[in-house]
Automatic annotation (TrEMBL):
InterPro entries recorded: FAD/NAD-bd_sf, FAD/NAD-binding_dom, NDH-2
UniProt family annotation: Belongs to the NADH dehydrogenase family.
Domain FAD/NAD(P)-binding stretches: 5-329
Entry protein name: NAD(P)/FAD-dependent oxidoreductase
Signal peptide interval: none
Pfam families recorded: Pyr_redox_2 (PF07992)
Classification lineage: Bacteria, Bacillati, Actinomycetota, Actinomycetes, Kitasatosporales
Entry keyword set: FAD, Flavoprotein, NAD, Oxidoreductase
Amino acid sequence: MTRPKILVVGAGFAGVECLQRLERKLAPREAELVLVSPSDYQLYLPLLPHVAAGVLTPQSVAVSLRRRLRRTRICPGGAIGIDGRAKVCVIRKITGEVIAEPYDQLVLVAGSTTRTFDIPGLREHGRGMKSLAEAAHLRDHVIAQLDIAAATTDRAEREARLRFVVVGGGYAGTETAACLQRLTSAAVERYPNLDRAQIKWHLVDVAPRLLPELGEKLGEKAMAMLRYRGIEFSLGTSVASLDATSVKLTDGRTLPSHTLIWTAGVAASPLVATLGAETVRGRLAATPQLTVPGFDGLFAAGDAAAVPDVAKGGDVMCPPTAQHAQRQGKALADNIVARLRGMPLKPYVHKDLGLVVDLGGRDAVSKPLGMELHGLPAQAVARGYHLLALPTMTARTRVMTNWTLNAVAGDDFVRTDFQARRAGTLQDFENTSVYLTPEQVREHSGPLAARS
């Protein structure tokens, strides 16, 4: 008897948690487990700003898939299309070869990409913070700006090199600005020709206040902490256009700058559009049981899926956070096991535990279980949460060691130049043009469907 094939697309929180649970709950004879992922690690995304700031090494937040998954077959590549009727997933391997992979049960947890808008120059000159490569490249770029500024005698160029603009007032943008501002403030001590007052960090967001997810009080507290450190804010405005040397805001101001970091939200993976299924604000419409209506054997969770938040009720959807993705992955695995064994599926229910925002050093704001904290207590909660959320003891040990070493010995502010020939922009890293149209997907799946 042929084992049913369970194909998981995406090695994020939801995908890896799902597979690890399936390995425990299903015997090898019950199902074949396959993971489609271009990388061989799971990225702990919440700590990416610490990598960009040099507080953590890249390896600290890249958890080996083979350390966590013992009998899952890993297909090294990315899914570029899905035919939900024929039950075929089209995959482009890292070699460039395109294959059509049939499945019995598909778990679509492809995550998200950086949400961008039609702003002139954004994709060509903006920099993202969504991947490990982008974080490592951004650190090199920021230190390079200090190097160039220290060497130039041109006052205008120095000003532009030392102004950094971050767009996005959510926790990703706020943490990125906070951690990198600490990096430049500490690094300037090594540059005799530079003054700390010359370095300008500017946080821009279209919302009227910072960190709306945490409420007005904590948002104001975070702003006060960062303003004390010299970060400037432009709320209620956005970017009108940018080029290699300047950023023009919608309020009419032009900021001389060689660095714009774009963290203004995420959008579901373009893979969702290849299905031709119903979506909610770009995310795949899913049931509380994490199934996709109208498609047999198709489950979805994480950033790519709009999952009803049963705990809150109404039309509220679960936010695209690591906290929900991890728990959805486990619930998803339980429902797949239930389906294979002819048992009823259960809805995903989870009460949000709150958010933590690490601003570097002793600065943080947190709201665990509705309790508002700031300063050292909030920092203790934030770092404690991250340590518990990291999936392996090895990862926890690496992160704790890195935090301790950085606190005691500081940073050497070294540029690695591993990717010196890459522009490091959103256009360079966000390869969203590889996905197929539904018609192109059927061209690949048609021969397979005909044979079956």
